[in-house]
């Protein structure tokens, strides 16, 4: 009998956030070890509960949520999303500009499948959220990574973006606020990125799932508001993070700009939406309540709030470790610290995080798993309370004390 192997389409596709390091953590758990998992931005395990009104509204609508919905999403949810963007200055947004999906992740895959032809290039930030790179590759395209500059607060290097454009480049991905760095882009930076897209006739794909999780004086600007009516912009967002309902799988993509030039693409996206029947209907019923009611995220992102205090503490403690530097996150739920290569000569950063896991029972994610160019970073989720975070960073400091990676291992 012949061997059954994976599709060749998966060659080069990675998603290291849930890759070999998680498998090693699961092996250790099976042996009876307790692992502190700081690799995934999943709010529920750290005591963040969904707002009561959202849960109640979804439960109230369960009897009417047993059948398929419109493949684009239920009308009330799409209306709520359209009205949200209208209130943010995008007054031309219509209900038919919105598609609801099983989280942003599904919509990214759907959009790229509908958009990318073999050999098309898509510009993606480095570091990135790796689903973008994997989905482009799976769709037959080529992910081309533009550099974000750590010395400038992880702002995209606009010269590097421009230098990476070829005749095969069709789109640019903007992740703002950024995962994994926590950068929140200024209006000037956003305009620079969109101006490049305008000059080269690129589609802008704006991943804004963390748009409500920003700190201090940071201000989030929608890429669509800068793109105007002459740059096609696809804006991705959802409930998972700001409303602490990762498991509800309620996300959306909003299409703005010259949609009359994208009718063929939108027909393809509608075809794919039809093929998956519809998004999770109970989760869709949470959208109208979430966007229209009291915004409970506000109390979490100000001084004294858990998101704020935990992000601030994690960056501070990491910067106190000799040879570790961390740009303070201005948004999102992560730190992306750098390990001084002179002090910690790391050759294989995946091996580094596995060694940390085995020694300290602490799970983080290696920087090259986010398509960073060198093995000198890792990502830490900042969701645990301050006591657990203090313990976690203490374990990292203990592990790094005298750490050297054996190049022959």
Mind explaining what this structure looks like?
With 409 residues, the protein is of the alpha/beta class. The chain has two domains: 8-48 and 300-400, Aspartate Aminotransferase, domain 1 (Alpha-Beta Complex); 52-295, Type I PLP-dependent aspartate aminotransferase-like (Major domain) (Aspartate Aminotransferase, domain 2), CATH 3.40.640. The protein contains 13 helices and 15 strands. The protein has an eight-stranded mixed beta sheet with strand order 2-9-8-7-6-3-4-5. Strands 11-15-14 form a three-stranded antiparallel beta sheet. Strands 1-13 form a two-stranded parallel sheet. Helix 1 (20-30) packs parallel to helix 12. The chain is globular and about 60 Å long.
Overall number of structural domains: 2
Number of helical elements: 13
SS-based class: alpha/beta
| Cα radius of gyration in angstroms | 21 Å
Instruction: Tell me the CATH superfamily of the largest domain.
Output: Type I PLP-dependent aspartate aminotransferase-like (Major domain)
Low confidence ranges:
none
Number of strands: 15
Q: Give the strand order, joined by hyphens, for the main sheet.
A: 2-9-8-7-6-3-4-5
CATH 2nd-level architecture of the largest domain = 3-Layer(aba) Sandwich
CATH level-1 class of the largest domain: Alpha Beta
The description of the largest β-sheet is: 8 strands, mixed
Q: Under CATH, the topology of the largest domain is which?
A: Aspartate Aminotransferase, domain 2
Shape: globular
Order of helices and strands: HEHHEHEHEEHEHEHEEHHHEEEHEEEH
- Mean pLDDT across the residues is 94
Per DSSP, what share of the residues sits in E-state strands of 2 or more residues? Answer: 5-15%
As a percent range, the share of helical residues equals 25-40%
């Amino acid at each position: 009998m012949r061997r059954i192997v994976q599709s060749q389409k998966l060659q080069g596709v990675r998603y290291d956030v849930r890759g070999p390091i998680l498998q090693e953590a699961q092996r250790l758990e099976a042996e009876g070890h307790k692992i502190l998992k700081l690799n995934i931005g999943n709010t529920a395990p750290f005591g963040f509960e969904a707002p009561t009104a959202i849960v109640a509204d979804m439960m109230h609508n369960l009897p009417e949520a047993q059948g398929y919905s419109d493949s684009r999403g239920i009308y009330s949810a799409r209306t709520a999303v359209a009205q949200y963007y209208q209130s943010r200055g995008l007054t031309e947004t219509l209900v038919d500009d919105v598609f609801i999906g099983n989280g942003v992740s599904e919509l990214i895959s759907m959009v790229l499948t509908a958009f990318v032809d073999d050999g098309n290039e898509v510009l993606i930030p480095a570091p990135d959220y790796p689903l973008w790179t994997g989905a482009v590759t799976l769709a037959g395209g080529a992910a081309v990574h533009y550099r974000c500059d750590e010395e400038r607060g992880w702002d995209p290097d606009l010269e590097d973006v421009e230098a990476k454009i070829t005749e095969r480049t069709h789109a640019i991905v903007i992740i703002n606020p950024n995962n994994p760095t926590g950068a929140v882009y200024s209006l000037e930076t956003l305009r620079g990125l969109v101006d490049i897209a305008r000059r080269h006739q690129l589609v802008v794909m704006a991943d804004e799932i963390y748009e409500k999780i920003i700190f201090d004086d940071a201000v989030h600007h929608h890429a669509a508001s800068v793109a105007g009516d002459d740059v096609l912009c696809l804006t991705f967002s959802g409930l998972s993070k700001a409303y602490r309902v990762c498991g509800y799988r309620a996300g959306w993509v909003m299409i703005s700009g010259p949609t009359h030039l994208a009718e063929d693409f939108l027909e393809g996206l509608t075809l794919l939406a039809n093929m998956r029947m519809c998004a999770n209907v109970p989760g869709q019923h949470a959208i109208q309540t979430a966007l229209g009611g009291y915004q409970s995220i506000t109390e979490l992102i100000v001084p004294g709030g858990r998101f704020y205090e935990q992000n601030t503490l994690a960056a501070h403690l990491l910067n106190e470790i000799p040879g570790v530097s961390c740009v303070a996150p201005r948004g999102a739920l992560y730190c992306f610290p750098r390990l001084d290569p002179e002090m910690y000569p790391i050759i294989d950063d995946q091996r580094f995080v596995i060694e940390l896991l085995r020694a300290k029972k602490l799970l983080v994610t290696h920087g090259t798993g986010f398509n960073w160019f060198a093995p000198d970073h890792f990502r830490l989720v900042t969701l645990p309370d301050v006591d657990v975070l203090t313990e976690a960073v203490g374990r990292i400091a203990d592990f790094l004390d005298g750490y050297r990676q054996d190049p022959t291992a």
